[in-house]
Amino acid sequence: MNSEPVNAYVESNKIKDGEVLLELEDIHMCFGRVAALNGVSLRVRKGQIHSIIGPNGAGKTVMMNCINGLYRPQKGGIYFKGQNINRLKPYKRARLGIARTFQKVEVFGGMTVLDNIRLGRHIFLETGIVSGAMYIGKTAREEIRHRAFIEEEIIDLLEIEHIRDKPVGMLPYGLQKRVELGRALALEPELLILDEPLAGLNLEEVEDLARFILDVNEEKRWEVTCILVEHDMGVVMDLSDYVFVLNFGNRIIDGTPEEVQNHPEVIKAYLGEEDLYATRR
Questions:
Q1: CA distance to 42, 43, 249, per residue, from 265 (Å)
Q2: What are phi and psi of 40, to 5 degrees?
Q3: What domains can you pick out in the chain, each with its CATH number?
Q4: Which of 17, 65, 178, 281 could be a cystine partner for 70, CB 3.0 to 4.6 Å?
Q5: How far apart are the C-alpha atoms of 38 and 59, rounded to whole Å?
Q6: What is the pLDDT of residues 181-233, one digit of tens each?
Q7: C-alpha distance from residue 27 to each of 2, 30, 277 (Å)
């Protein structure tokens, strides 16, 4: 369960115990008779990387969709910085400081890297019709400010200066993942939801993206709290402060990486009864 290159980059993995940024309380989400989430509760503290793992079909993506507003749970409450956000649309949650990347890359292939990332700044635009049409005054000043943030902060962080003017659809999959991360960071989020960001990447790309996630979480310029949904257990255990384990919509454990790795129900969920018995012989 260890990833040597990533682990070498992580000097320490101390548990951060800040204020609660996000809380899910007794969340129930059903599709017909299928209970995707069955009374799930979770607390994510500011400054943490809190991973969510579980077998396919465990309810991880449903949980993420509830947090960013694509789904509204039938029961339970979702609180961001103490505010109940159950009824807020996804764009209003984005305004509060919640951003997300998706399991399958969601980019505009015909647009350039810069234009894709600029889309993430749209919620900050406050210019009027006249100044926007004539590109004067406040519009010009806002454009300069947003461009500086994207080009001096995001482009530099993700090391994509060399592809900034290229159409995203022409780029390798790993670079498209960086662009999607950049667009999410353009929202300047307090909470970043990463839904399987490493899926489909080779080893070098995994190391790079894991490094960017750590930078976003730890660097003072960013200090973004992260929820990471991922199947790469080596990366999860190396990066995470806490790990939440789901199975068939139910919580198994929410604890430190060490506690999770040694929990028999976690091993059972991933290996199955027969393999669990074999490992104990």
A1: 18, 21, 14
A2: -80, 135
A3: 47-68+90-280 (3.40.50.300)
A4: 65
A5: 9
A6: 999 999 999 999 999 999 999 999 999 999 999 999 998 888 999 999 998 98
A7: 32, 10, 33
CB-hemisphere CA count at 13 Å for 145?
12
SS (H, E, C) 251-280: EEEEECHHHHHCCHHHHHHHHCHHHHHHHH
Strand partners, 192: 99, 226
For residue 231, count other CB atoms closer than 10 A to its CB: 14
Neighbours of 203 (CB within 10 A): 10
State the pTM of this model.
Answer: 0.82
Q: Give the single-character DSSP code of 200.
A: T
pLDDT band at 11 (very low <50, low <70, confident <90, very high): very low
271, 253 contact by CB (below 8 A): no
The DSSP output letter for 221 is: T
